[in-house]
Amino acid sequence: MSQNQNGTWVRVYPPQQPRPSNGHVAVGGSDRLCLNPKRDHKPENYEDLQLEFNPLVFSSLEHYLPPHMLHLSRDVKVQYMRNILLRYLPESERIRIQKHKEYRQRIMLNYPRLHKEIYSMDAEKFFTPSFLRAIKENTEASFRSIMAEPCKGIYTFEMLQPQFCEMLVSEVDNFERWVHDTKFRIMRPNIMNQYGAVLDDFGLECMLGRLMSDYILPISRVFYSEIGGSSLDSHHGYIVEYGINRDVELGFHVDDSEVSLNICLGNEFSGGELFFRGVRCDEHVNSETQPGEIFDYSHVPGHAILHPGRHRHGARPTTSGNRMNLILWCRSSAFRELKKYRKDCSGWCGECKRKKKEKERLLVMATQQELMKREMQSAS
């Protein structure tokens, strides 16, 4: 199962539409995207436009426009991409998004911020020196120099400075007190977490956008290109809280993201380990765990764990104290659009990969048996 923006867990079935033979993906009418992006193209800036979608979505999708459109006016490109996006966003969803914008505006107009300095990106004060050096060098070698890969596709590393963790925790506590005192009804991160807060909803959206685009995207380009890591263009950032009078554990699930960042912010606690059980596509999300896919992770304050959103996982009970984590779901609209027309997930789904290998093994065995049969017949 996966979770949509409403916090509902759903099983997603890709539409059955044929892939055209001319190298484009048809999405209805004359609106098409190219399967292969033009990476050296510099997209337009759409931040000044009032549109239904995040401006980064348009900048990301522009790489996938047909070549003849890349140098047309911005208005033409906006209309073209908007037509594509609206085919997958019904009227009810557009109304929900507008109401959510109004909800955020009410919070930001009334909530008194405690630590104003964390609402804009200050890398030197937020991140550890080792992490900043790796990002500045921006090479696979520099990333691997600060990372461990305890399980294939899962990376752990030291990331946040203690002072920033403390300020973010106290900001969330301050927000929770304001919610309680004003009796303001807020939306929780998802239906599985009854405690915690959506950071985007009270002013941290821009800072988290920078976190994704400037610090997570360079890493995901290297390690997650096959699952949309090169075209991350939107995010969902939130805090989860576990412990006494909070959530205790988190059930087995997959995230509504291409790449997920999970950072422990601290507090004294025990338990709460994450457990991972393999990457799966929608069709195989409930399939059995294979040997080599089992991995458990114990949280360390200030340390991050980065993994594919489709990597099945959960959290064991927090047995004492309180734990707070920052979660950033990073998404790629281009990957989600093109995934609907690609049926082969064997490049990243563990079960698809296993079935493909098994099919190849059986084919080799059948070929060997046929050759042996022919040799025996010729010998006789």
Description:
α5 (129-137) runs antiparallel to α6. β3 (24-26) and β4 (32-34) form a beta hairpin. The chain has helices spanning 55-62, 74-86, 91-110, 123-126, 129-137, 140-146, 162-182, 205-223, 333-339, 350-379, and strands at residues 2-3, 9-10, 24-26, 32-34, 148-151, 154-158, 197-198, 234-243, 250-253, 259-266, 269-271, 274-279, 295-297, 303-308, 311-315, 318-331. It is globular. The strands form 4 sheets. Strands 5, 6, 7, 8, 10, 11, 14 and 16 form an 8-stranded antiparallel beta sheet that branches. The relative contact order is 0.13. The chain contains 10 helices and 16 strands. By secondary structure, the protein is of the alpha+beta class. Helices cover 36% and strands 21% of the residues.
Summarize the structure.
The chain is of the alpha+beta class and about 375 residues long. Helix content is about 35%, strand content about 20%. A hairpin with a 5-residue loop joins strand 1 (about 1-5) and strand 2.
